[in-house]
Amino acid sequence: MHILIIGAAGMIGRKLTAALLADAGVGGHGITRMTLADVAEPALPATTIPVSTRAADLAAPGAAAKLVAGRPDLIFHLAAIVSGEAEADFDKGYRINLGGTQALLEAIRAEAAQEPYCPRLIFTSSIAVFGAPFPAVIGDDFLTAPLTSYGTQKAIGELLLNDYSRRGFVDGVGIRLPTVVIRPGAPNRAASGFFSGILREPLAGMEAVLPVSRDTRHWFCSPAAAVGFLTHAAAMDTAALGARRSLSVPGLSATVAEEIAALERVAGTKAVQLIREEPDEVIARIIAGWPQTFSATRALALGFRADASFDAIIRQHIEVELGGRIG
Amino acid sequence: MHILIIGAAGMIGRKLTAALLADAGVGGHGITRMTLADVAEPALPATTIPVSTRAADLAAPGAAAKLVAGRPDLIFHLAAIVSGEAEADFDKGYRINLGGTQALLEAIRAEAAQEPYCPRLIFTSSIAVFGAPFPAVIGDDFLTAPLTSYGTQKAIGELLLNDYSRRGFVDGVGIRLPTVVIRPGAPNRAASGFFSGILREPLAGMEAVLPVSRDTRHWFCSPAAAVGFLTHAAAMDTAALGARRSLSVPGLSATVAEEIAALERVAGTKAVQLIREEPDEVIARIIAGWPQTFSATRALALGFRADASFDAIIRQHIEVELGGRIG
């Protein structure tokens, strides 16, 4: 099986690559070849499996066709301009998040026009496809009414994925990723960054800023759970999806106060004291439009599984990113 | 007020043009100028109001910019490839229904970048944005999960309209038109054509084909009600819409049997006997995925009104299209 990962240099892309190579397969099929693509050429992982790396701007003319020309059996499309940047740069967000996705789907369709071809395509959507007002628990039939350009671009990607799958051009699955915590490394331009920051920085002995009130509730998964959703989607029987190819996957619903309580249980009072409250009206307003709790009924029935607890998410970060040591 | 109608030569476009000219205004604002555009140049209506006509393919490079250069205050975007044709010709459907709408929104944004400009834009969406399985009554929070490429293109148009409106580039309202009956004139390539045909042909003394079973239920409005939805949307206070700019408007829910019973009440047994059953599996399968009944709660609260009855719809057709005489 030949696997193509677009957006392979990002946080999820790197962890997904590592998980796939560690398993050397997906759903009982061995990996014969991997292609890793991103705007900047991804690092070559250490493995005996043949891996090629490519620098490619998915939205540039011809770029998607080149990536698909190798006829990968399984494609992960993770490439995106994040929410904060897509809101700040309207043209860039539409060009990459909408135009790039369209280019990829069209390239797959063009490839199929030559010779039968219908790869499994895993599209990372986002809970940002939903916008307030919400019911107490968001069911699988709730409308996608995004309140950001990023969410709009992802919701459009879901619609295209459904239509191209219905037409038989691709075998698509969209995964609406919860907000991933704890993101390792430097903050990115996502408005959700502080949800990770208030855990990550104290665990490294550094101060963190909390821009919203402690009763702010949101929907989360760990990096390992996010990778698990994607590999599960790659191996699942898509017949069960019918025409609705995107899934709200099971996350953890938690308030900022619950995050902080978990941090205190795992890392002690000293860590919690490093969180400094600094209200930011702009961030608070963006977050107020975000979803808090999903039923994830379909995804649960299809075998997708949530993290066990916020304590487990924090311990995963300490183990994987900090070598077991709190700073 | 300068009004631009894109898709002015179509059935709804012509009736809308006539209604606007008859009222000589919208929402208390007089019409100073009208521009009528379509793929083929629309006919010039008889009026003292200055009207210009244009042949324009909205998706062609530069076409949208030319239409918007006159800075119309109110734009009706009715142009579309209908469902049957968009399903048969994938590329054409996406080029016009998605590409054309994107081009229009971008042309408006580009115009605003020169000098402040934020026209009211009425976008004709469709109940085809919804797809089975459905609840008994479709509420305003139900997801858009279209089962046709046409419905997909309209659902994407709605998302773009929301985002461009939220950003302040346009003041958009999307109207999800019910299936319009009785469409006058020749059948078009919409799969819904027979819903009109089984009334229109017998009223003209001609035989009509019924391709689905009589218990098939669907959601309807008359041509006059459709025009009324569009003019009401043009005059309404859009603040009440918030970020959800598209509305499921109040139609009539009726079965084919109820349609035929109304025909019998208005036009007698002789008319009904002209309906010949000729089951068509392809049409039946398409229609099975279509919605049947909506709550239309938001639209009703905003003053949108349904037709009184199917009898009234049939009488309207006899009056307006047949000069009061049944064939």
Write structural notes for this entry:
Two copies of one chain form a homodimer. With 327 residues, chain A is of the alpha/beta class. Chain A has two domains: 203 residues, 3-Layer(aba) Sandwich (Rossmann fold), CATH 3.40.50; 87 residues, Alpha-Beta Complex (UDP-galactose 4-epimerase, domain 1), CATH 3.90.25. In chain A, 41% of the residues lie in helices and 18% in strands. In chain A, the strands form four sheets. A seven-stranded parallel sheet of chain A has the order 5-4-1-6-7-8-12, with helices on both faces. A three-stranded mixed sheet of chain A has the order 9-11-13. In chain A, β7, α5 and β8 form a beta-alpha-beta unit. In chain A, α1 crosses α7, α6 runs parallel beside α8 and α8 crosses α12. Chain A is globular, with a radius of gyration of 19 Å. Chain A starts with a strand and ends in a 6-residue tail after the last helix. The interface between A and B is medium-sized, with 22 and 22 residues.
Radius of gyration of chain A: 19 Å
The CATH superfamily of the largest domain in chain A bears the name: NAD(P)-binding Rossmann-like Domain
Largest sheet of chain A: 7 strands, parallel
What is the CATH level 1 assignment of the largest domain in chain A? Alpha Beta
Query: What multimeric state do the chains show?
Result: homodimer
Largest interface: A-B, 22 and 22 residues
Cα end-to-end separation of chain A:
41 Å
Share in helix of chain A:
40-55%
Tell me what the CATH architecture of the largest domain in chain A is.
3-Layer(aba) Sandwich
Strand content of chain A: 15-25%
Mean pLDDT over the full residue set of chain A: 96
